[in-house]
């Protein structure tokens, strides 16, 4: 989601500049995290200017799919996140601004996408659980370089080479 500096300055003469849009964050699915799928995120917010600093308050709403902690079944996880970021268009951006987590604006465009992704990653829950207990059937049984092996007892098949030895044990008379 990108906003131009001129657009913000024109729209925020005596009041904050309001914005509303969608952000595509499907790149999060490819990263090394638990997000299996994520829908486009609805972003609403406002930008308030004070000199060369831009105070951005935004609200994120969307849904991501995460694995169940017990069965690895896909679990839809809706989220709503409120976040605030501060940006500076000043040419005198230095160490002090960096320590206060004031982000520099490069050029004439304020790109919120990296900060949207960062806030979503920070809000991923440690673990989620599927609602239904019978979700074992829906759980994946194999994947890249792995396969689920059940521990249920199956009939023991006897090696054909040892079949003759078994017949000796069965024909043995009982000793008294």
Automatic annotation (TrEMBL):
Positions with biased composition (Basic and acidic residues): 144-157
Protein name: DUF177 domain-containing protein
Upper lineage: Bacteria, Bacillati, Bacillota, Bacilli, Bacillales
Pfam families in the cross-refs: YceD
Region Disordered, annotated ranges: 135-157
InterPro entries to which the protein is assigned, alphabetical: YceD (IPR003772)
